[in-house]
Amino acid sequence: MQDYVKGAGAQAQQIGCEGTAAWIGSNSSVIVLRALLVRLVLLSIVVGIVFSVLGITPFNLIERIEQLVRRMLDLGLDAFHSAFGYFLLGAVVVIPVCPLCVC
Questions:
Q1: CA spacing 20 to 30 A to 70: which of 4, 10, 14, 50?
Q2: Same domain, 95 and 65
Q3: Both 2 and 42 in a single domain?
Q4: Is residue 46 located within the same domain as residue 80?
């Protein structure tokens, strides 16, 4: 079993380095990259048309994302503020009682 694992590891290591170098330099990788770029351009045009119909501009989108992040931070900080208040309220009771329990 160990010989099989050693053989598989060596084979995978050998294929991994040489296979990647061969794939990058091959003509098929150029074709794949061109196809990917064409898909990205077409998808960008379709999304741009849909956003245009909905009245969404790039600046509007960035502004909405900024508002979302601010609201999430406000909610998070409010929750931290509330939790800290509960911590202080509990500490007022627990810390004076703690020396009595240790004895």
A1: 50
A2: yes
A3: yes
A4: no
Tell me the whole-structure pTM to 2 decimals: 0.43
Q: Print pLDDT tens along the chain (103 aa).
A: 455 545 554 454 545 555 555 555 567 888 888 889 999 999 999 999 998 999 888 888 889 889 988 888 888 777 777 888 888 888 888 877 777 777 6
Check: CB of residue 23 under 8 Å from CB of residue 29. yes
Domain interval for residue 88: 57-103
Distance CA(98)–CA(90), nearest Å, equals: 12
The answer to whether residues 34 and 75 belong to one domain is no
Q: Give dist(CA 35, CA 27) in Å, integer.
A: 13
- 43 with 85, same domain: the answer is no
Number of structural domains the chain divides into: 2
Element counts in the chain: helices (H) and strands (E): 3, 0
Asked if residue 3 lies in contact with residue 9, where contact means CB atoms within 8 angstroms, the answer is: no
